[in-house]
Amino acid sequence: MAHIDDMEAALSLERFGRYVTWAGGDRERALELYTLNTQVSEALYIALQTLEISLRNRIHSAMALTNGERWFEQTDLMQVPHQAAQVADAIAELEANGKEPTPGRIVAALSFSFWTAMFSPAYEQLWRTTLHAIATRDGKGLARKDFSRPLTQIRLLRNRIAHHEPILHWDLRRHHQALRDLTKWLSPPAHAWSAPLDRFEAIYPAEGIILARAIVEE
């Protein structure tokens, strides 16, 4: 029990309390769930990383082809208010670190929320004229909405993992499949490269995860 007491103190009562609730008050089981949460979060990294890199590079390639490499600085193209501020912040950070703000560096510095914003309704027209070129499914084109809904959930999941938050109550198999599907649509080579590296199925329990309270699927 000393080990659990020490971990509870290290994690904080508030953070560990969620797992104790999920374990029905069994603190040993709570620590097992916390460990599993950490392992599953780590196992999702490959799929998250591959999707994010594929997404931003495909968008940048399509937009640069029709609007030039610095398309993200054209105010008439940016339809979501926070995107211009994100571009400015990325440039400022690069310059503060003594780096030339080249298009490639700016693209790499922009957050995931910048790229997911490109699938908001405000970009419907741009999707029809330009962004539709970023992905295909079985040789056929895709609609903006094929990306927008799963990407919203993936962004939230990514942020929870980045902040070390609980994710066991999410429908992780569904989200993992969405990560794989979207990556395949965007870049079959990236999808194929990442497949043998993806450990999610090996880590996530085959029987699922049973929590003492009702599971809230996200």
Describe this protein's structure.
This protein is mainly α and 218 residues long. It has 2 domains: 43 residues, no CATH class; 160 residues, no CATH class. Helix content is 64%, strand content 2%. The chain is built from 12 helices and 2 strands, in the order H-H-H-H-H-H-H-H-E-E-H-H-H-H. It has a two-stranded antiparallel ribbon. Helix 4 runs parallel beside helix 10, helix 9 crosses helix 10 and helix 10 packs across helix 11. The protein is globular. The two termini are 33 Å apart. The C terminus is likely disordered.
Properties at a glance:
218 residues; mainly alpha; 2 domains; two-stranded antiparallel sheet; 12 helices; 2 strands; 64% helix; globular; Abi-like protein
Total domains: 2
Q: SSE order, as H and E?
A: HHHHHHHHEEHHHH
Share of β-strand residues: under 5%
Distance between the termini: 33 Å
Annotation field: number of helices: 12
Shape: globular
Q: How many β-strand runs?
A: 2
Mean pLDDT: 92
Gyration radius, to the nearest Å? 20 Å
Helix percent reads 55-70%
Major β-sheet annotation: 2 strands, antiparallel
Question: How does the helix and strand content classify structurally?
Answer: mainly alpha
Strand order of the largest sheet: 1-2
Low-pLDDT windows of residues: 214-218
Protein name: Abi-like protein
InterPro entries: Abi_system_AbiD/AbiF-like
Pfam families: Abi_2
Organism: Aquabacter spiritensis
